[in-house]
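Q: Joint fold for the lines below.
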Amino acid sequence: MNNNPLRKAFLFLFVAGAVGYGLGLGTDFLVTSILNFSGSVASAFALLFGFTAFFFGLYGYRGITRGLVWQVAGTLIGAFLITGIRAALGATPIFGAFFFSEPAWVFGALAGVLSFTFGVGIMDDWVKWARGFDTPEYHEDEPGWEKYFSVSLDHKVIGIQYTVTALFLITVGGTFALIFRAELAASQLQFLTTTFRLFNQTGPQLYNSLMSLHGMLMIISILLGVSGIINYAVPFLVGAHDMAFPRMNAFAYWVAVPASVLLLMSLVLGGFDTGWTGYPPLSSRAPVGMQMFFLGVFTAGWSSILGALNVIATVLRMRAKGMTAMRLPIFVWAGIATSIIALTATQLIGLSFQLVMFQRLFGMGFFDATKGGNPVLFQHLFWFYSHPAVYVFVLPGLGIISELLPVFVRKPLFGYRWIAMSSLGIALVGFVVWAHHMFTSGMNEYLRVPFMYSTMLVAVPTGVKFFSWVATLWGGKIETPTPMLFALGAIFVFLLGGITGPPNAMVAVDLHLHDTYWVVGHFHDTIFGGFVFPFFAAIYFWFPKATGRRMNEFWGKVHFWLMTPSFLMLTFGMMFIGLRGMRRRIADYDPALGFDNAHLILTICGFAIALSVLIFFINFFYSIKNGEKAEGNVWNSRSPEWLVPSPMHPHNYPVPFEVVGEPYDYGLPGSKYVEFANGKTPKHETKRVGTHS
Amino acid sequence: MTHAEEKNSLLGQGVFIFVYLAVLTGLEFFVALTFNSVPLLVAVALVKAALVLYYYMHIYKLNAVEHEGGHDSYEYKAGTNRIGLWLFLVSDSFVFGGLMVMRLNLLGLTRPDLNQNLGFFVTAVLLISSFFMNRGEVQLHNGNRKGFLQNTMVTFVLGLAFLLGVVLIEWHTVSAIAEPILALFGEHAGKEPLKPSSGPAGAAFFMMTGMHAFHVLTGLVLLIIVWVNGRRGLYDEKQYPVEAAAVYWHFVDVVWIFFYPALYLIGTAIG
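A: Joint structure:
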């Protein structure tokens, strides 16, 4: 990437941010007659202006910049419209604590999301179709990095857009974690004190907002990361030239961008202190930031739903000749299982958040016990998605592990059919386990035991996967380049996450473990093992496919060997103090508990993980231009995408292929997976090759 | 069977199915007013939904195999689009399912105190609109563009009538319009109208009808798009967009098949 546009972009960011802050202060002063320097309005303006100007400097007025400008304009127009209508109807107050009133903010934010989609240009073709005009099926992409900042219909470009956005959100969510982790390093409040004020929040309130947003930003980033890898890999793994619905694919990505902006807005508009779960009644009283959070998740949910729909349709309809169900790569099976959950259950988190939104806006008492509502109902609706959601996070990751192991062990995947079906099994059992999050909620007691048993049933298909991984590794010639290291790390970490799960499922134990740091440790183990490690493995693995260069092996290994022990220490520590009574989600703890040293170690581990991810980022961006050239079959894989040169052709395979054998028959002499129509199928070696430094 | 016979039989099938649906809807109303058996109401709703899914929405088309032209043919792409549309409907029905769970949890075997006559009337209007939608689609299939346009327009007008019936009159948005019309349907004067903030019945009623009305509105937009483009002959050959609009419209009807008994018929009325 040229340095000049980037430098310009940062300059614009600072100038526009300052101008936005000034404008915000001014408007705030006009309404409240107080110069509020911790003010949220100023920060909200600064955020919107700065973000937009950054891309303007980088890229000019097109693509993402145009989308963001339209989002800002749409938000302001929508909010002023509602403010005007409310003033005309005589509703009070016309302005709220955050300049606009709550209904105005909500409507404005929604209008902003809609205008973003029009501004960025993703609706252009659909509008033309509705008006009766035809458009070409595919559009040419610009060459170079510019294509990643505007609408592209190529699934590989969209996959990379997803992945980079996910990495950006991981950075933001991780930074939030570092801030509150630093506060937790010692008991008592050090810098997030009660006199500290930022974004109209005191220190402990800001702690709550950061802690809550860490949760949701990471979840959204995981969803985008999952979509990124699936979008990038599934079409070429099944031999398709693109996804079934390229425009909807692009829409699903682009709608996640305004969603991320809304989530960040929630921090500056007063924040919210509910944790990522947003339980009422607390969430029906939190500041207007809560509404931005709801809307952001709702919008990101649409990204997830439409992406999942596309994946299922693609696999059903776009497979290469001979790609029967039992010859699909395992990662595709995992993608299908994930998509079934994302397609259906996601609606329920959207609905539950929508109901709280309406409760706040129109006084509808769904979850308000004083109006005959039922707060526990929210938890049921919420967890009906939010538990299966963790399978959305981990199933693709487990698929990646199964996909990579045979490549680096040079022997067939053990029990292909069982692995393929275990993904579906986890997905389906996952639909009937949600209430294990609610053992302490006061729900009907007869529900506890059935949910305890259904929860423990999840261990069966998951055990099938572990059995297969161990049997695949057994007696293999194991090579350990960076992707394989991460796959092995994933197995180990996910195992820890797995065996710390059943105690939570047991009602009798969970009543004591609920809301302790033990749960936090368990959860991070499952998500790092099921998503973060495989995600990095996938990036290291497919990076050469995307760029024609490979990432630096040495720094990749440094990344792994720094991250893994720090992470294990972190979660062990969390579980250790959790069992001894450390509560989750709190800004401070009693020094008499004696957790100071443990928390200090956890904080150091957290920063070590951040350092390792920083190393990854440097390696990633450096290698795009300067990595070692790798245009061939770097990993000596049987998969069809490696049999064509990297980076891939825009429509994947210029010559179609036919599937003639099993996907994972590594090391079996004479076995073949695919055959290209022109008869020129490149051979892969069955023996170990010395390409791995 | 000759071509003309086939054309007529498709139209005739639409009429028959409509008669079944109408009789079942009448039966529901009768059951609700007399012995109010919840299992029977559920069973009738399931039968109605199955009839619409099979005969109006042609769910069996998902199983059709396109033989000609390979992956780039219009038929094959239409088949892919059909799968996409049905996946979307599956996803969407989870929203309505969630709303139904909310209603059952908050209200149980009670229901909002609504005017049952008006409810029956708007339900009939939506059902008749589905009949005309099916007729329009069949006419297009038979190569009768004029018939397609007329029937689609009738569908649109009936859909709009349903939407206004719910949003303007049932919701009591403008009392000056709502009250005289409600009086026509036998509502006592001076009855306190249901409000979103008046307890769980109001919340459930406004949320469920609101979400459904939003889908009716988007359906109307789709109808007007296919009507305008259909006038220019855009769908004489490539008919999938009309099928998609029709299937979506019938889906909105299927949702109402469940929401109608849930809001107007089962259990006892509470304020």
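Q: Anything notable?
A: The domain at 143-629 of chain A is CATH 1.20.210.10 (Cytochrome C Oxidase; Chain A). The radius of gyration of chain A is 25 Å.
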